[in-house]
Design brief:
Length: about 90
């Protein structure tokens, strides 16, 4: 997820700088220079955002999985207890 965020934000930054350069009439060398600098910065920020998002998603899925497993174990224990009660009665 981190790499996809990095690539997406980097490409977006490069496109926005190119668009800005075209609108204000900058020369190509200046647009490329600024575009590459902003793209590198956006790649770094995108990678960090993607890594944080990936970690949050993994933790959330793990917590929900553990809760569900705990519920299933409790249900199985309850069924076993009911079987024991019916055998003793």
């Amino acid at each position: 997820m981190a790499r996809s965020y990095a690539v997406s934000l980097g490409a977006l930054a490069l496109c926005l700088i190119a668009l800005r350069g075209a609108i204000i009439g900058d020369d190509v060398a200046s647009v490329v220079q600024h575009g590459l600098l902003w793209m590198i910065g956006a790649i770094g920020a995108g990678y960090l955002i993607g890594a944080i998002a990936d970690q949050l998603v993994c933790e959330t899925v793990e917590i929900r999985f553990r809760q569900r497993v705990s519920e299933v174990i409790d249900q199985i224990a309850q069924i076993e207890a009911e079987k024991q009660d019916s055998r003793t009665s």
